[in-house]
Amino acid sequence: MEELSKCMKIIVKANLKKSKEDYIKSTxxxxxxxxxxxxxxxxxxxxxxxxxxxxxxxxxxxxRLEEISKEASSWHNWFERxxxxxxxxxxxxxxx
Length: 96
Fold this sequence. Notes:
Layout: H1 2-15, H2 20-49, H3 55-84
Helix pairs in contact: 1-2, 2-3
């Protein structure tokens, strides 16, 4: 549960961006998020292997974690594209 809570905090922090530095921090946070998701997937695999959770629950949670990881990857790639673009007229990175 603690690891899930940390993931939620990372998602919120990554979404709070106003400057180039914030975008850079967000890319690092999203990398961290993907690592934590892999850790969660490992925990659930162990729980399934030890028969603490059902096969169906394991399959469902694994699918959901995989979707979150894919979204974090897409979000990370978008942030990197924003960082590669020149600054807009307001001094903030242009969005794609």
